[in-house]
Each structure stands twice: as structure tokens, then as C-alpha cells.
Amino acid sequence: MSKYKYLLFDIDDTLINFEKSFHNCAAKVLELGGCEITDRNVRRFKELNDIVWFSSGLEDIYEPYIKENYHRLYHKYVEDSLDKAINEFGLKGNYDDLMTCFNHSLGEEAYVNENAVKVLNILKDKYTLAVATNGLTIIQPYKLTKLPKVFDKIFISEEMNCMKPYPEYFKYITGYFNCQPEECLMIGDSLVNDIGGAGNSGIDSCYYNPGYLKKKTEIQPVYEIHDFVELLDIV
């Protein structure tokens, strides 16, 4: 019998493929803004988003300023990303409608990772399943639209006023479930936020690494999988 009772899943690049989901989202926004949907335009939209993301500093999660202002900066990143697209492509229409489309389409057009649905449906009757994600309440819930409704709780950093990889994030989760850290398993793609954060909080981790990426950090997961079905051999 597995020692785990609570399985915590990251969303982006774990349950869903963010890049493919973003491409679908970009096409929706371009269409609404009256711009031709071409592979070139969709790729350019993604390039602009990446520029804004890396300039936002949000990846420097351990920087005190980023920690203190994470969600305010996250909102600004979303706004700046759309603004760049509007200027680049000359998108027309109501700004609020474009923003709503941008936020919601990231989820409603989500590309679910292979075998995620199958595995979640197998696990739902055996474990308490939860989502543990960094992000905004206006975006993250929509990313679960194409997944089965199997989650007992969705933990979104903005609602919690704390984020992965900080111990208070994981302590919030164990407090909510009134459980011990060793009863939980965190499944995610980020060695820093998911794997390192869980490990520093006494929670075992499973690194989802479908691309067989080489680790560029000393952080080591307890488990590593390359396909969701491999999770069934662990739990």
C-alpha cells in the first residue's frame, strides 16, 4: 500500500503543455483582434510573450522584491504581453474583451499532456488529488477546463498570498488537509518550484520530465517520470 494519501499536481508543463496551449490561445486572440492567423503570427505572439516573461523577473523567485510583489508583477506581465501583441499586430476591438479572451483562452484552449486524463481518472478513487500552482485566479482555473473534475482542492498562489517554492505554500496545503508532509507527493516539472520547494518542506517529489532534460541544478527529486502512466508504478 502506498504511503501517500495526497497527490499534488502542478499545472503548466505538467498537466498541460504550456507552449502548445499558448499557441492555441494566441490564435484565438489574433482572431478576435481581426488579425490573420498564420503560423508566423502565432510564433511571433509567443516570442513577444517570452520577452515579457523573462524581463518581468518572475523566474527569480528567491529575490526578495519578486517574492514581495510576485502577483502584482504577474498581473503586469499579462497586461504587458497583451499590449505588445496589440501593438505588434494592430489588434482591434475592445481591450477588455481582448484581455478576457487572452486570460480565458490559456485554459479553454489548453493542450492536455498525454495520458494525464487517463491517469487522473485511475487515481481519483484512491487518493485525494489537488492542484498546486503559482499564478493568478483569473487564469489558472480555466487551465483545468479540459481535465476531469477530480480535484478535491485547487491551490492557487494568488489566493494563498504565498507561492512555491516557499515553505509557507506547502505548509498551507498540509494545514488545509490536516495531514503530515510525508503523506503528500508533489508532481511537477520545475526543479526549483515543485521539486525543491516540496523537498524543503518535507514532502516527497516526482519530477515530470517528458523531454529527458538534463538537470542544471543540484536539486534531486525522489522520483522521476517521463510519461504520466509511470506515476502509477510509484503510487
UniProtKB/TrEMBL annotation:
Coiled coil (UniProt feature): none
Keyword terms of this UniProt record: Hydrolase
Record InterPro entries: HAD-like_sf, HAD-SF_hydro_IA, HAD_2, HAD_sf, PGP-like_dom2, Pyrimidine_5'-ntase_YjjG
Superkingdom of origin organism: Bacteria
A Pfam family the protein falls into: HAD_2
UniProt GO molecular function: hydrolase activity
PANTHER family linked: PTHR47478, PYRIMIDINE 5'-NUCLEOTIDASE YJJG
Entry protein name: HAD hydrolase, family IA, variant 1
